[in-house]
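seq:
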Amino acid sequence: MKHISVLVPTGPVIIDTVISSYNLLKMANSYYKKKQGNGQDLYTIELVGLSKNPEVYQRLFQVKPEKSIAEIEKTDLIIISAISGNLQKGIELNAEFVGWIKKQRVENGAELASLCKGAFILAETGLANHKNCSTHWTAHDEFKARYPLVNLVPEKIISEDNGIYSSGGAYSFLNFMLYLIEKFYGRETAIWCAKISEIEMDRFDQSYFMIFNGQKEHQDDAVRKAQVFIEENYEHKININQLAEKVNVSSRNFLRRFKKATANTPKEYIARVKVEAAKRQFESTVQNIQEVMLNIGYSDEQAFRNTFRKYSGLSPIEYRKKYNRELAFA
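struct:
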């Protein structure tokens, strides 16, 4: 019988990614067994830790691994649960998983699935290099800086690349688990699990959950000064050459330094700041699209619609309807 390992990390974790993943897979086994009528599970599903000692999370919740990694000679799918808190420390505490995951992949062909910031443990193996990978949007900058060879797909809830799967952040892992269940058990089983658990199926984008706060965790004071100016004047037309002059940097050097520091060109950064301002207005006012568009400095409605969808994953109308309380209950 094939085997699935749900990892039980040590240190701070998002405990639901351990328990709920395990329970959903058990649920899929139960339905599949009933449908087949042969009383046989499709997979053996086990909680796997660095040891069999219980892990205590948040000083309240205890999870006891059924097996240690030393006891698992071969597994077919590894669910890499989400670590949290200080990610560097989390990686260090769980370093023994890295070699074991790599061995299972290289020697046994195991497929790998990371949940949320479990992507950091996945990326530590080097197996995600030059492959698509997703993680929580709050960790994108840190992930890109730490793993430049991994192709981060920031907007995706679900990423798949040659047997290596990864998910976006927080509770989107539930949608991701349904995706895996469909992959390994079939569509019918996934639909049944979705209905029983009341989880929305086929949701693939996390763009409309993202909050753009500006990437200021860098050491370039001139770029940071430019960012502040953009954020305080986004409703006006901002000339890039004048912006460079304002911070006493040549235009060419400014463009290079801005991109290096923020992972955006100045033009992209301005657009993202404008879109974030528009999102706040759509959430909290009853202004129409044209009014919001003009408020943030756009005069071309089609350009505004295209830019808004690019960075939010929804059209202005869809976003307004989804997040404006008065419209949601109208």
